[in-house]
Amino acid sequence: MPVQRADARRNYAHLLAVAEEAIAAHGADASLEQIARTAGVGSATVRRHFPSRHALLQAVFRERAETLCAHARDLTGRADTRAALLEWLSAVTADAATIRGLAIAMARDRASEPDVTHDNCCSAQLTEAGAPLVRRAASDGALTPGVTITDLLTLITGIALATEQHPDPAAEAGRLLDLTVAGFSPPKG
Asked: pTM to 2 decimals?
């Protein structure tokens, strides 16, 4: 990436902050034109920094996705592979249910070009981070054979989208995840 001028870096940071607020208030479909007006720039400036809505959502959720990925890496060495996977899935579910726009961004990542991997999108990052947890749980017999990380992230996205209007979306999403878990990974004994 070429080095940006100081004013371009300031514009980017300001636009990103305004976009974060707009997405928190209006979801993933927040108006790019309104973001530009609020930031005090033209829509061409927004498009120069974020050539598509996907690029904007990717930038807004980058830090949160990186935190979830780091959490997955931290859990990978745990002896109880089922508990490690469920802890991570619970964290992803809570974020997807409570961070407005994140579940839609994840769903759009999957739907935009299903056969193309977008290296920096939320879903690709989460898929890569969660895959070792799924492999370890599967090899220990703690996961129903054939269940993939893609399956689990799709379920989480659906749960988050279904609960985003609930008065307590994180609690409801957690409850629905618990119901789902009983189907794909019943406790042993």
From this structure: 0.80
